[in-house]
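2024-03-11 09:14:02 DEBUG pipeline.ingest accepted 1 chain
2024-03-11 09:14:02 DEBUG pipeline.ingest length=73
2024-03-11 09:14:03 DEBUG pipeline.predict start
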Amino acid sequence: MTGINHPQAEARIEALEFRLAHLEDTVLKLSAELATQQQLLDRQVARYRQLLDHVTADGTGASAAGFEIPPHY
């Protein structure tokens, strides 16, 4: 190597390896958190669809948006 002796090169490589290990750990943690968040979102979307189906299924086929405001309002 030109201009860099072995102790300097080894120290730089060691520092880079340390940073890489830290970044890999961070990526794994973020990936796990993202998977957890996706599962939560999937459950919330399923629950929202259930609630929407429940609100819109009143037996007459009319949707919740089809109801009129009572005259006293």
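2024-03-11 09:14:41 DEBUG pipeline.report The mean pLDDT is 87.
2024-03-11 09:14:41 DEBUG pipeline.predict end
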